[in-house]
Hints:
Number of strands of chain A: 0
Largest sheet of chain B: none
Oligomer: heterodimer
Amino acid sequence: xxxxxETTMGILTHTRNDAAAPVLVGAxxxxxxxxxxxxIKALVTRRNWAGHxxxxxxxxxxxxxxxxxxxxxxxxxxxxxxxxxxxxxxxQTFQNGCEVVTLxxxxxxxxxxxxxxxxxxxxxxxxxxxLAVRLVSLLNDMLHGRTAPDDRRDPATIRRHVLESLxxxxxxxxxxxxxxxxxxxVVLGSSSSGLLRSxxxxxHHACYATVMQTLxxxxxxxxxxxxxxxxxMEHASMxxxxxxxxxxxxxxxxxxxxxxxxxxxxxxxxxLSRIRNFTWLDSAEHKLSEFSExxxxxxxxxxxxxxxxxxxxxxxxxxxxKTGEPAGRAASCMALGALPGxxxxxxxxxxxxxxxxxxxxxxxxxxxxxRLPGAMNLLLKYIDSxxxxxxxxxxxxxxxxxxxxxxxxxxxxSDEARRATGALVRKVDHEALEKLIAELESQSRKNRLKAxxxxxxxxxxxxxxxxxxxxxxxxxxxxxxxxxxxxxxCPTREVQDALEDAASDRSSAVQSAAKNSLAVFAGMNLGWGxxxxxxxx
Amino acid sequence: MTExxxxxxxxxxxxxxxxxxxxxxxxxxxxxxxxxMRLAPYATALALAAIAFYAWNWFKKRNDFTxxxxxxxxxxxxxxxxxxxxxxxxxxxxxxxxxxxxxxxxAVFVTPSAFRVNDLPEHLRKEEARINELAAKLF
Lengths: 537, 139
C-alpha cells in the first residue's frame, strides 16, 4: 500500500465522521485488492454496526487471511453487527453470522439467539436453536479449561450471563416449547440452581418432563455431573435420586462409580441410603464381576451404603467374592464385615484362604471383631505370612500384644509363656525394641532389671548388646550382674572384652556373673583370642 | 477563547446601551440625535468585530475534524487537507465524483477506477494531465 493510500485509510479508519463508513463499504465493491483488504480492516476497526454488517455479509467470499483480519480486528467490537446479521432476512448473511458467532464463541449473542429460537415462526428459528445449543457446549468446554490460550474471557462470568438468558427462556417455556433450550439450561445449570430444583420438585411444572428426560438420557458429562451433584445436597429431591437410580447407561454408571470412588460425604451417604434399587444392577450389560477392579470396589461402596435390600446385597457381595477381581473381592469382604449373621461369617472364613493377599487381609481384619471360631489360631498363623499386607492385618487384630502390656504382665507369666508371648510381641509391636531400650535406661532399678529379663525372654540380648554392655557400668551392682549374666547369649568380641573388664568389677556378684559368661564363651571355641579361664587370670 | 471574546463584547456594549437609552428619551432633540450619530462608527466597528469573530469561529469549527458527526462534505475536506490538495484539485475531485455519480465526493479517494480518463465525459478528458497527476498522488 502506498503512503498516500495509507493516509486515506488511516483517516477513514479513525475519523469520528460516520460518513467514512459508507465510503469504505463502497470500496468493498471495487476491484482493487489492496483497497479491499484495507477497507475490510478499517470497517471492522470502526465501531459502526452498518460497516460490520457489510463485512459480515461478504464473509463467505473473504480469503482465510482476510477472515483472520476480521476476527483479529473485530474481536469484541462486532456484537451489534453480528446481531443484525443473525436477524437478517438474507440467508447468506445469516449463515455468515452463525459461522462467525461459532468461530469467535460470541456468547453476547445468546439472548438474540434465544429470542430467535423461541420465535418458531421465524425462518431461522431452528438454526438459531442449534447455534444456541452449540454455544452452550462451547461454553462448557471453556468451563472445563478447554479454551484458546489467548482467550482471556472469564468463563464463570459468561456462564452466569448465559444462564440468566436461559432461565428467562425456561420461564417462557409454555409459549415456545423449545425443549433444546431447556436442555441447554440443564447442561449449564448446577444442582444449586433454585429454578432447576423448583422444576424437579414440581411434577406439574411445564418443563418437568423435559428436564427429567434430559437428566435421564443426556450423556453430557455436565448433566451427569449435575445429577451426581444432587447426591451432595442437604435435602436432595427424590425425583433427582430416582433418575440417578434408574440410569443404566455405561457412561453414567462409570462416572457414578468414579464419583463414589473419590469419597462420599455424609450428605452423599445419607442420600444414597434413600435409594432402594439401581437399575444397572438388573441390566445384563452391567454384571458386577465384569466391571474393572476399581469399579468393583467402588460399586461395593455404593451398594453397601445404599438402601437396597439386605438379601440382595448379600447375594451381590457373595457373587463378587467368588468371581470378582482382587480389589472387588477385598471390598466385598470389608462390606460383609458390617453385616450381621452366619452367612457373612462363612464367606469371611472362606475369604481368609483367598489367593490374593489383599482379600486375605480384608478377611483377617474381620476375624476377631466377628468373634469367629479359630480366629486366634488363624491370626497367629497369618502373622508370619510372606505378605506384608496380611501381616499388617493380623497385627492390627492383635493390638493387645504390645510391649506395654507385656511388661505389665511379665512377672505373672511362666517362663514358657514369657518366651511365647515375647515372640508374639516382637511380631506385633514394631516399636518393641525402642520401648525396651527406654526401659533399660529407666531411672528405676526395678525396671532396668525387668528389662534385662524381658530382653532375654524375647531373645533380644544380641540385638541390644551395646545397651547391655552399657549396663555393665550401671551404678547398681545387681543390674550389672544381671547384664553380665545375660550377655553369655551374645558371644561377640566386644561382649567378651566388656565381660573381661566386668570380671574385675568391685562387686563379687558381677565378677562371678562375668566369669560365668566368659566360661560359656570359652566352651564355644569362638576363634578369636582366648576366652576367660580361671587359669588365665 | 470564544467565551472570553464574547464577554469582552458585552463589556464594551454595556456603556453603549446605557448611553443609547438616555439618547432615545430625548429623541426629538435633533442636537442629541446628531450626538447619537457620532457614536455610529463605534457601533459599526463593534458589529464588524462581532461578524469577524463569528466568521472565524465558523471557519474554525468547519475545519475541526475531531467533532463526531456524519458529514460527507467535512470528510471530503478532511481527506483533501490530509493530502494537501489545493482548491482546483478539490474542485476536480468533486467533478470526478459527480461524473461517476458517487454518493459522496470522498469516495473518489478509494476508487482508482474513477481516474480512468477514457471513461470520463468530454469536459473532463481535457483535464487528463491533472487527473493523472492526482491519481498518482492519491494512489
